Every structure is written in structure tokens, then in C-alpha cells.
């Protein structure tokens, strides 16, 4: 009976974290669907939107290193609570704010708290997962998170027909508040080891001295590289080609549907390994992004981008599965934050490279170059072990 209750409690805690993740993702989806369009209302330039978004990625990247010692020292559930709480306050302030300079400060603060939220959530979820079911559980958390993203994208279409862009901040705050309430009700106590002074520089050196982690880091860059490009530039591309803002929600909804396959990808990776999904995923993205360059109609361009998302859905859960299967459990807190910097590094590249290109050329050429870059990540992934 004692074993049964223990296993049942473990399942409940894992399920609760999943539910929190889904609700949070709805709010995040609402934000990511309008960030670029909202920034464009200030900058009036695709490139400037890209450069500003790139600066935010740099700040997020630095935040990973700044907060890494904090996460090792304090309980993840407390850090998660405060990061989400202050994120809600910032979103509310963004709704009533009219100053551009205050907007910049608030957005920077939101990005920093988002880093804390993502890092601590990942560790809590990993701690509740059994090693043998890690692939399945990672695929599940990604798939359910994508359900939240899809719901958020679906909500964008009717909301943008009635409300202004900045009103999406309020709706995002509402969903984030609901997620926080659920987390408070179901939060767990985590026993932490005694705090030991952390040598961040040593952690970074040791991380990249590990050949498998180094190779994984390089091959992981492609996923968020492509996603960053899509969420910053494609909403602008859609609106500037004559579609309404509400159509952005339609595109993002369809674009995100292939990500529902991540649960099955994660589950299958427990059987045949992660490498095959990472390499095949990048190959698919590269091919369809280059095909978008040759397409003559915007509908066909958007179709190819949607088909490319099937490839990214293969890489999203498997990169973390590979990470957790490469290191020991005691090394998670030491290395996980460093590993997660690949997200912001790749987002930075996925934003700044098109921003530079758009100064000299149009979207068509950008599609070609982005597709070719995805083949570089495909080559990186070939060096991974099949684990």
C-alpha cells in the first residue's frame, strides 16, 4: 500500500506540473504572436524590430549565467513562484504603460523572469520523471505545452478582431495568473543540499570540455534559431503582404499543429534513440525553407513553413532527452542552465541574421539563406551519438 500511494503521489505531482505548463503556454503564445507587430508600431522597420528582439535575446542569455548560482542555492519551487508572480505584474504594467522607455525596461524585466521560470520548471519536471520514462515524459511536456501554444494562437484570431495589440498583455496575465494559482495549490517541497560556493566559470569550462555536451549544444542551436525567425518576421511578412493582423493567429495555429507529434517523438526516442530525430528534423526544415524561396505565392510560402515545422517538432524534445541521458542526475543543476543558453543563443542568431539581411534584401533571399543555415545544423547533428 505504501508503494502504491507513493507512486500515485508522484504521478499527481507530475500531472500538476504539466497542467501548469499548459496554462502558462497559452499566455506565452498570446505574447509571442503579437510581440513583433507591437514593436513594429514603434520602430516602423523590420530590421529594427529584429535588432531589438536580438537585444532581448542577449539579455536572456546573460540572465542564464547570472541566475545559475541562484537556482543551485535556493528551492526551485520558490524561484518559480516569484518569477511568475513578477511576470504577471509586468504584464499588467505593459497594458497601462504609454512610455516607450518604460516599455523597454518592462520587457527586459519580463525576459529575465521568463528565464528563471523556464529553467526552474525544467528542473522540477525532470526531478519528477523516472529515468526509464524520460523520453516519453519529455515528449509529453513538449506536446502539452504546444497544446497551450496552439490554444493561444487560436485565441489570437478572434481577440485581434476586437482588441488592440497591447490588450493581449492583459489576456496573457490572466492565463499566467491561473497557472500560478494552480501551482500554489499543488506546490511541493523540495529538499535541497547544503549550499556550496559555485564556480560558474568552471561549470562553463567543464560543460564545453565534455565532447557530447559540446556537440549537443551546437546541434541544438537550429531549433530555436528557426522558431525565432518565424515568430519575429513571419507575422510582419503576413501583414505586409495584405493580410489582417487576425490572420497571424490563423497561421500560427496551423503552424503549431505539427508540434503535437512531440509526445510520440519523445516516446519513440526511448526505443531508437534521439539522434535520428534531430538529424532528420533539420533536414526537413532545411528543405522546406529553401522551397519557400522558390515559391511565387505567399500561400505556398506559408505552406512550406508549416511543413518545415514537422522537422522542428522532431528536434524540440529530443535535444533535452539527449542532455538528460548524457549527464548524471547530480549534475543537472550545475549544467542545465548552461545548456539552456543554447535557446537564447539560437534565438539571437535567428533574429539578428535576418535583421541584417533585410537591410540589403527582401524576405525571399532571407528564406534561402535561413534554409542553407539549417543544413549546417544538420551536419552538426551527424556527430551525435545515438542515445
Question: Which helices and strands, and how do they pair?
Answer:
Elements lengths: L1 H42 L2 H28 L2 H21 L3 H28 L6 H29 L4 H20 L13 H10 L1 H30 L4 H12 L5 H11 L2 H20 L3 H29 L5 H29 L2 H19 L6
Structural summary, described in words:
Helix content is 85%, strand content 0%. The protein is mainly alpha-helical. The protein has one domain: MFS general substrate transporter like domains (Growth Hormone, Chain: A). Helix 1 (2-43) runs antiparallel to helix 4 (100-127), helix 1 (2-43) crosses helix 8 and helix 8 runs antiparallel to helix 14.
Please provide a brief summary of the model.
The protein has helices at residues 2-43, 46-73, 76-96, 100-127, 134-162, 167-186, 200-209, 211-240, 245-256, 262-272, 275-294, 298-326, 332-360, 363-381.
Q: Biggest β-sheet: count, sense, barrel?
A: none
Count up the domains.
1
**Overall average residue pLDDT:** 84
- Evaluate the radius of gyration: 20 Å
Beta-strand portion reads under 5%
- By secondary-structure content and strand pairing, the structural class works out as mainly alpha
Q: Note the total helix count.
A: 14
CATH topology: Growth Hormone, Chain: A
Series of H and E elements = HHHHHHHHHHHHHH
> What is the overall shape?
globular
The N- to C-terminal Cα distance equals 36 Å
CATH class: Mainly Alpha
**Low-confidence runs of at least 5 consecutive residues:** 1-11
Number of strands: 0
- Any guess at the CATH architecture? Up-down Bundle
Provide the helix percentage: over 70%
Per CATH, the superfamily is MFS general substrate transporter like domains
Amino acid at each position: 500500500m505504501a508503494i502504491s500511494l507513493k507512486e500515485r503521489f508522484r504521478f499527481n505531482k507530475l500531472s500538476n506540473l504539466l497542467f501548469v505548463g499548459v496554462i502558462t503556454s497559452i499566455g506565452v503564445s498570446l505574447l509571442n504572436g503579437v510581440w513583433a507587430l507591437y514593436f513594429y508600431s514603434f520602430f516602423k522597420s523590420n530590421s529594427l524590430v529584429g535588432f531589438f528582439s536580438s537585444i532581448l535575446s542577449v539579455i536572456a542569455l546573460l540572465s542564464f549565467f547570472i541566475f545559475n548560482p541562484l537556482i543551485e542555492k535556493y528551492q526551485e519551487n520558490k524561484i518559480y513562484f516569484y518569477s511568475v508572480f513578477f511576470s504577471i505584474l509586468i504584464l499588467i504594467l505593459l497594458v497601462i504603460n504609454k512610455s516607450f522607455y518604460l516599455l523597454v525596461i518592462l520587457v527586459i524585466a519580463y525576459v529575465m523572469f521568463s528565464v528563471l521560470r523556464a529553467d526552474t520548471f525544467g528542473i522540477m519536471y525532470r526531478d519528477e520523471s523516472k529515468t526509464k520514462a524520460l523520453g516519453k515524459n519529455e515528449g509529453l511536456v513538449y506536446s502539452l505545452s504546444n497544446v497551450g501554444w496552439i490554444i493561444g494562437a487560436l485565441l489570437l484570431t478572434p481577440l485581434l478582431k476586437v482588441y488592440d495589440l497591447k490588450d493581449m498583455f492583459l489576456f496573457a496575465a490572466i492565463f499566467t495568473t491561473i497557472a500560478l494559482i494552480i501551482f500554489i495549490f499543488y506546490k511541493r517541497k523540495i529538499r535541497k543540499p547544503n549550499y556550496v560556493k559555485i564556480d560558474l566559470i568552471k561549470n562553463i569550462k567543464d560543460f564545453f570540455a565534455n565532447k557530447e555536451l559540446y556537440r549537443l549544444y551546437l546541434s541544438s542551436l537550429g531549433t530555436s534559431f528557426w522558431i525565432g525567425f518565424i515568430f519575429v518576421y513571419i507575422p510582419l511578412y503576413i501583414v505586409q503582404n495584405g493580410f489582417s493582423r487576425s490572420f497571424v493567429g490563423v497561421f500560427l495555429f496551423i503552424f503549431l499543429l505539427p508540434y503535437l507529434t512531440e509526445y510520440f517523438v519523445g516516446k519513440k526516442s526511448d526505443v531508437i534513440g534521439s539522434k535520428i530525430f534531430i538529424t532528420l528534423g533539420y533536414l526537413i526544415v532545411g528543405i522546406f525553407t529553401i522551397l519557400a524561396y522558390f515559391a511565387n505565392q505567399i500561400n505556398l510560402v506559408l505552406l512550406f513553413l508549416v511543413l518545415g515545422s514537422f522537422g522542428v517538432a522532431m528536434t524540440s524534445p529530443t535535444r533535452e532527452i539527449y542532455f538528460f541521458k548524457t549527464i548524471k542526475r547530480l549534475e543537472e543543476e550545475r549544467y542545465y542552465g548552461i545548456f539552456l543558453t543554447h535557446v537564447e543563443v539560437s534565438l539571437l542568431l535567428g533574429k539578428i541574421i535576418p535583421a541584417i539581411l533585410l537591410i540589403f534584401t527582401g524576405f525571399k533571399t532571407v528564406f534561402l539563406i535561413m534554409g542553407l543555415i539549417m543544413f549546417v545544423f544538420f551536419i552538426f547533428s551527424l556527430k551525435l551519438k545515438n542515445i
